[in-house]
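The protein record reproduced below.
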Amino acid sequence: RVAELNESSLAIVQRCASHLRSSLRRHRAATAMLMQAHGRGLLDLRARWLLTGWLVQDRQYTDALPLAEALVKEKTDNLDYRLKLVAVYTGLKRTEDVAATLDETEARFREQKRWSESVAARLGKTAAANRMPARAERWMEEAIRLRQEARGHRGGRDSTLSRYYRALASARGQLGKTVEAVQAASTAILSANVRR
């Protein structure tokens, strides 16, 4: 009722929708509230990002697609927006679009000299989640190389590096590279930060 009385206030509508979703666990009602506000042109970029995330969480990929595409079009260089679009394509089982978006993201970030350990790792993780082990292997190898260079190639415990090696082991296992997968898994164990 509060949102209805203040339907022109983005802050109030968003607060009411968040309360419905988080506190009252009324996901559909919360999403519907933001969708209606979006239909009225009320949502700003942050609110559209929130709505897109909710739609993906609720597996409403068809509704999420135009929002995710618009986010990427509006902010082409935002990695989060690009990976959310990949999640939507994944939900819609549009494998070719997933691959194309991942490859385009790599090319764009390299071209702009924004390629980094974090970008490589996130793309590798996303590729692995989408059963694209060759891409996952390539990007995880690069994330590992960049991480090691940043640390001066010194050994020791590094939980981030351990996670990268685990992801690399998984990708190599999917590719049937058993020996290399075992080597990566062993390195993951050796580089893990063991808490006692």
In short: The CA atoms of residues 127 and 136 lie 5 Å apart. The longest helix spans residues 133-150. The chain is about 75% helix and 0% strand. The chain has a mean pLDDT of 92.
